[in-house]
Amino acid sequence: MDYDLLLRGGRVVDGSGQPSYLADVAVKDGKIVELGRVRGSAEKTIDAQGLVVSPGFIDHHTHMDAQVFWDPYATSEPQHGITSIVTGNCGLTLAPVKHGDEDAILKNFVRVEAMPRHALEQGVPWGWHSYRDYLNRIEGRLGINVGGLVGHIAVRQYVMGEESVERQATPAEIQRMKALVLEGMEAGALGFSTNRNERHMREDGKPVPSRLASDEELFTLCDVLGEVNAGAFQSTLGQFTPKHFEMYNYLARRTQRPVIGQTVMYRPNAPKRWKEQLDAVMPTFRDGYRLYLRTHTVPNFRTFTLSNTQAFDEFPKWKHLMFMEIEARKKSLADPEVRQNLRADLADPRPTNFHRRWDLVTIEKAAKPENQKYVGKSVAEMAEMRGQDHLDAFLDLSLEENLETSFRNANAGGNPEAMREILQNPYVLVGNSDAGAHVQYNAEFGYGTTLLGLWARERGVLSLEQAVHKLTFQVATVYGITGRGLVQPGYAADLAVFNADTVNACEPEWADDYPAGTGRLIQRAIGVHYTIVNGKVICADGKITGELPGQVLRSSAYRRP
Ligand SMILES: [Zn+2]
């Protein structure tokens, strides 16, 4: 046999953004070896006529650090043509970790990323210390390729213990943190991440450790990237301010490494912000430095109930309630005096992520038969039907249903004109799946299939070639994932084979497939036929095949002598 795998007659969209063309793709030893009219025989042949053959998609914003232990495919990523993921975003990693600190690390994941504690306790087989140990631990048993950033939260916890959530670091401690980041980079991390989001707390209500870091601490740790000349810096900073852009810009210049700033999207409560954000990154690129923003392609809808939500964490009175036991919470929500406080809290005019618009919060599921008439209506409409004030109607309905009413909050995205400009902007990275996080509220594995189906095919905002480029080669270059992201001889045979006429994401659905019998949302796709990692099919028509060809993706700092 000449080849291990041959894809016949597909339309190659090669990831570069150039026009697509018809070609066979031949694979040997995990690499693409021939492209064009390929003669010769292969172990396995796939008829790709009528289908697109593109590089596998790279999901650069995930929190799959834990899930890969019990699910080496990081499902539902492969179902959407994703062949590589980046973990360790937003400052959160499972390494480095000191023996005895494991639970302190979990506390961050449980609250910030809303992961079920029982699943993490049962599913994470601790036992490593360094970042290198962690990567070694996952290597060799992966279905999908996994690269990771070193997280500031873990690094700070390692050096400062419990004081990491209480005070600033001393110069000596900063130097020790710096050594840990360097160790991670030399182990092959794809970069470093931090978290200064004012809404991000641990399970016990304390701020995540990285929020206590001074600028000096953060800059010193970022310097490692410049010093090893590898890796990207990613951060989550919460509410947008021009100051954030000063900092991003400064770091892009100081390190000469790619900086991935915060999310840009259309927000109904700040309709001009996305434009200001796009304008703010222009000067950095003009001067020759790299500062990217990332965007959601999935209009951002979040489901919540008042028994389990982070939707109101920006409002101190609300947040206090949401940390109460359920029975006490119900009593408080019924108390007119408490309601006055909640109302005042929402009326405070400072900018927040939650838009405070009851016409944008809809009732997704009602628990009781008599309340089914409200399903699909906004809280504003429901309040009108009940002849009540908005807030009272919202709280009363929830209380009548033992806080089980499920609401859907349309927070952002969706504005086609804004999305056109955002997606076409060369400084915007697509992909904010947050996969592995908020697993019981949301599933956005389909950010790529949504880009291809909704924004490229249906709305014509991007060409197919541009959309594929955004999902593949652009991400590979920013994160320094070399040898992937293009359909080219010599490149890894990470491939997605899909039907451009039908590709799309399905609505998320519930599955009880997490450890300790916990459930989460998964998501299927339409039109994705094969997902191929290092030359092996890991997913065919939505079904996982059982092959384990995934590799740990390591930066150039690892390969350097
Ligand atoms: Zn994140």
Q: How far is the N terminus from the C terminus?
A: 37 Å
Overall number of strands: 24
Overall shape: globular
- What amount of the residues lies in strands? 15-25%
Oligomer: single chain
Structural class: alpha/beta
Q: What is the fold's blueprint, element by element?
A:
Blueprint (H helix, E strand, L loop, with lengths): L2 E10 L8 E8 L2 E6 L5 E6 L4 E4 L1 E3 L7 H4 L11 E6 L14 H11 L4 H7 L7 H8 L6 E7 H9 L10 H16 L4 E5 L19 H14 L3 E5 L5 H14 L3 E5 L9 H14 L4 E5 L4 E5 L11 H7 L3 H9 L1 H12 L13 E5 L13 H8 L3 H11 L5 E7 L3 H9 L3 E3 L16 H12 L5 H8 L1 H7 L15 E4 L5 E2 L3 E3 L8 E3 L2 E2 L1 E6 L2 E5 L2 E2 L11 H4 L2
The structure holds zinc ion.
The site of zinc ion has 6 residues, from loops.
Description of the molecule:
- The strands form five sheets. Strands 1, 2, 3, 4, 5, 17, 22, 23 and 24 form a nine-stranded mixed β-sheet that branches. An eight-stranded parallel β-sheet has the order 6-7-8-9-10-11-12-16, with helices on both faces.
- The protein is α/β, with parallel strands linked by helices and 561 residues long.
- Helix 8 packs parallel to helix 9.
- The longest helix is centred in the first third of the chain and has 16 residues.
- The chain contains 19 helices and 24 strands.
Task: Describe the structure concisely.
The protein has 561 residues and is an alpha/beta fold.
Salient structural properties:
561 residues, alpha/beta, nine-stranded mixed beta sheet, eight-stranded parallel beta sheet, globular, binds zinc ion
